[in-house]
């Protein structure tokens, strides 16, 4: 019997099997080990404030570069996620109770590091009635109080099991950028992101714009999971239909042998083609490289994003 092909997916059955040998990692995806003094200083500040970062928990390849410049992505609400996505290295299980002092410690770390732009993300907290929305809002307000000039980007869960009010709570706290990642093309959701719903995530981002048309929205996907170029371009179109401003595309890297395997390593030339296509579809800002991650160069990219909006308004 022939396999049925799901649109946007190259290999419906074999793409997700972690026990298959993955392709050899090419030179363009390799990074140096973190050894700089800046890296150590950032690590010490985070440790002193008892903070978790997605840089460590998700095994980001850019941690050495980012921490050497004092940039870190804060991960609030603990180290345990209630979801079990096959691409993610964050532990799955029953999380601890929320730490009411965490927003203040995040704000203190942001001030100590002197961050001009901070990214605040979290694990999924399906155990909470609001998915942690109020904790996000408290963290945003605490950072604003201590560092009023710092711009804030949130990378939130999908609030799938919460009332619509959860999203409103975060938007009302006025982050400068609201980011929620689609992660992959819809055809791969059953194996890559089984606890989520593709069109719910799209609607979440669209709803942000309805609540606050001035707020920048951002989303990203990984490639190399088994998708095809047609699926990536269709996902771009879906994002633009939700009025998303900023798109990130990066290479998926398998955290451990138990995780979703790498189907292939996408070449830098293909990333350039995706970038060109995305700008052609109307995104204000696009970051598409093998090492692109949601918060990689987020501060510099936010400055470019604001400039792109002003330029667009100037043409109207």
TrEMBL record:
Pfam families, per the entry: LIAS_N (PF16881), Radical_SAM (PF04055)
What this protein needs as a cofactor is: [4Fe-4S] cluster
* Cofactor detail note: Binds 2 [4Fe-4S] clusters per subunit. One cluster is coordinated with 3 cysteines and an exchangeable S-adenosyl-L-methionine.
This entry's Gene Ontology molecular function terms read: 4 iron, 4 sulfur cluster binding; lipoate synthase activity; metal ion binding
Which residue ranges does the record annotate as region Disordered?
1-25
Per UniProt, the keywords (alphabetical) are: 4Fe-4S, Cytoplasm, Iron, Iron-sulfur, Metal-binding, S-adenosyl-L-methionine, Transferase
Instruction: Identify the SMART domains for this entry.
Output: Elp3
* Organism domain of life: Bacteria
| GO cellular component labels | cytoplasm
* Residues that coordinate or bind [4Fe-4S] cluster 2: 81, 85, 88
Give compartment(s). Cytoplasm
| Catalytic reaction list | [[Fe-S] cluster scaffold protein carrying a second [4Fe-4S](2+) cluster] + N(6)-octanoyl-L-lysyl-[protein] + 2 oxidized [2Fe-2S]-[ferredoxin] + 2 S-adenosyl-L-methionine + 4 H(+) = [[Fe-S] cluster scaffold protein] + N(6)-[(R)-dihydrolipoyl]-L-lysyl-[protein] + 4 Fe(3+) + 2 hydrogen sulfide + 2 5'-deoxyadenosine + 2 L-methionine + 2 reduced [2Fe-2S]-[ferredoxin]
Provide the Radical SAM core domain boundaries. 67-284
Which class of enzymes does this protein belong to? transferase
- This entry's Enzyme Commission designation comes to 2.8.1.8
InterPro entries linked to this entry: Aldolase_TIM, Elp3/MiaA/NifB-like_rSAM, LIAS_N, Lipoyl_synth, rSAM, rSAM_sf
Name the GO terms of the biological process aspect: protein lipoylation
The biological pathway it contributes to is: Protein modification; protein lipoylation via endogenous pathway; protein N(6)-(lipoyl)lysine from octanoyl-[acyl-carrier-protein]: step 2/2
Binding of [4Fe-4S] cluster 1, residues = 55, 60, 66, 295
Annotated HAMAP family: Lipoyl_synth
The family this protein is said to belong to = Belongs to the radical SAM superfamily. Lipoyl synthase family.
* Protein name, per record: Lipoyl synthase
Organism whose genome encodes this protein = Pseudothioclava arenosa
Highest classification ranks of the organism: Bacteria, Pseudomonadati, Pseudomonadota, Alphaproteobacteria, Rhodobacterales
């Amino acid at each position: 019997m022939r396999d049925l092909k799901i649109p946007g997916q190259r290999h419906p059955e074999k793409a997700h099997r972690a026990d298959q040998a993955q392709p050899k990692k090419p030179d363009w995806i390799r990074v140096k080990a973190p050894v700089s003094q800046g890296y150590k200083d950032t690590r010490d500040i985070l440790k002193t404030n008892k903070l978790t970062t997605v840089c460590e928990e998700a095994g980001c390849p850019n941690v050495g570069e980012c921490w050497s410049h004092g940039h870190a992505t804060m991960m609030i609400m603990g180290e345990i996620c209630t979801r079990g996505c096959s691409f993610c290295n964050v532990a799955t299980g029953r999380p601890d109770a929320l730490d009411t002092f965490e927003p203040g410690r995040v704000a203190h770390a942001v001030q100590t590091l002197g961050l001009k732009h901070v990214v605040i993300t979290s694990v999924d907290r399906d155990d909470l009635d609001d998915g942690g929305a109020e904790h996000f809002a408290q963290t945003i307000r605490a950072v604003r109080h201590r560092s009023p000039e710092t711009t804030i980007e949130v990378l939130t869960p999908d609030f799938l099991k919460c009332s619509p009010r959860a999203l409103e709570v975060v938007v009302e706290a006025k982050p400068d950028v609201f980011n929620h990642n689609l992660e992959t093309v819809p055809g791969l959701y059953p194996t890559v992101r089984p606890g989520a719903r593709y069109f719910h995530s799209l609607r979440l981002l669209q709803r942000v714009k309805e609540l606050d048309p001035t707020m920048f929205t951002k989303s990203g996907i990984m490639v190399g999971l088994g998708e095809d170029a047609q699926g990536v371009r269709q996902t771009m179109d879906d994002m633009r239909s939700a009025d998303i401003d900023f798109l990130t595309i990066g290479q998926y890297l398998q955290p451990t042998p138990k995780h979703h395997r790498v189907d292939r390593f996408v070449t830098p030339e293909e990333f350039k083609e995706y970038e060109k296509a995305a700008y052609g579809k109307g995104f204000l800002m696009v970051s598409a490289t093998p090492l692109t991650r949601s918060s990689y160069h987020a501060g510099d990219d936010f400055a470019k994003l604001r400039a792109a909006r002003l330029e667009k308004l100037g043409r109207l």
